[in-house]
Amino acid sequence: MSKSVGVDLCEGSRFSALDEHKGRVRGIVLDEGRSLAADVVIMAVGAWMPYLLPFTKNFFRATGHAVFHLKPRQRELFEPEQFPVFGADLSSTGFYGFPLSREGVVKIARHGPGREMPPDSSKRFVTPDEERAMREFLAETFPALADAPVVYSRICFYCDTHDGDFWIACDPERAGLVVASGDSGHGFKFAPVLGELIADVVEGKKHPLLEKFRWRPEVQPGGKKEAARFLPAKS
Ligand SMILES: Cc1cc2nc3c(=O)[nH]c(=O)nc-3n(C[C@H](O)[C@H](O)[C@H](O)COP(=O)(O)OP(=O)(O)OC[C@H]3O[C@@H](n4cnc5c(N)ncnc54)[C@H](O)[C@@H]3O)c2cc1C
């Protein structure tokens, strides 16, 4: 789709550094050493942001969240007809899940504190504690699923801001740089509207939401918006 409107994709290349000169970002450098010149650079690298642009480490935290695929013993109980998509109490657990997929698995994950780590971390695997917490939740809620074998699990990432709101703004200290990130676990559902908001920032247009997503280094950790994101690790 983007190619058909003239977007030139550098597939397989990775961002390595900003090409900065006297407080102005005039492009990027790719990992193979090639430079790409640009009037404006939009960095939208999700949870990689605090690692690719270390000066944003005070604003963003990359957190890993466990996802489980379970094979229920009584699969008929988890068919979509009788087992809906669910979201447990966000103020106490944050677990959510989906009915039986075509592959015969039930997917369970948790909108919780997560674990801070770089997305390319060697620790990117589900821990026994995370599995235990999931099984404790299932034992209380869906006992028929509590001992189902895990057939697949992974760690997936959020880029958290301190207040849980997106970050879509020009860098006041680096002309030519726009940072668009801070999904805090909510970016997918807003994907259809984010492009326009980012374009408004690039073009310097006003938009009522952009005050909320402004460049806000003054916001400190502790603004507890979603209780489940701040539960103690054990529960
Ligand atoms: C378990 C889980 C469940 C979720 N469920 C929901 C949900 O139900 N609803 C919802 O709205 N959101 C949900 N989310 C959040 C959603 O996935 C994110 O908000 C969204 O993916 C963030 O989009 P992004 O473009 O900011 O980052 P990403 O989707 O992470 O994209 C960042 C991109 O940057 C690329 N990149 C990294 N480093 C480089 C580099 N050096 N050079 C070039 N490219 C690079 C990566 O390969 C990646 O493609 C969930 C997230 C998780 C982890």
CATH class of the largest domain: Alpha Beta
Tally of helical runs:
3
Taken together, the total number of domains comes to 2
Largest sheet geometry = 6 strands, antiparallel
**How would you spell out the order of helices and strands?**
EEEEHEEEEEHEEEH
Average pLDDT reading: 93
Structure ligands: flavin-adenine dinucleotide
> Which superfamily, in CATH terms, is the homologous superfamily of the largest domain?
FAD/NAD(P)-binding domain
The CATH architecture of the largest domain comes to: 3-Layer(bba) Sandwich
How much helix, percentage-wise, in residues?
10-25%
Instruction: Tell me, briefly, the overall form.
Output: elongated
Termini, distance in Å? 44 Å
Structural class: alpha+beta
Q: Would you give the CATH topology of the largest domain?
A: FAD/NAD(P)-binding domain
Report Rg: 20 Å
Can you describe this structure?
By secondary structure, the chain is an alpha+beta fold. The termini are far apart. It is elongated. It folds into two domains: 3-61 and 162-226, FAD/NAD(P)-binding domain, CATH 3.50.50.60; 63-157, D-Amino Acid Oxidase, Chain A, domain 2. Strands 5, 6, 7, 8, 9 and 10 form a six-stranded antiparallel sheet that branches. The protein has a three-stranded antiparallel sheet with strand order 1-2-3, with no helix packed on it. A three-stranded mixed sheet has the order 4-12-11, covered by helices on one side. It has three helices and twelve strands; from the N terminus they run E-E-E-E-H-E-E-E-E-E-H-E-E-E-H. 14% of the residues lie in helices and 28% in strands. Flavin-adenine dinucleotide (FAD) is lined by residues 14-15, 44-48, 52, 65, 67, 109, 156-158, 181, 183, 185-189.
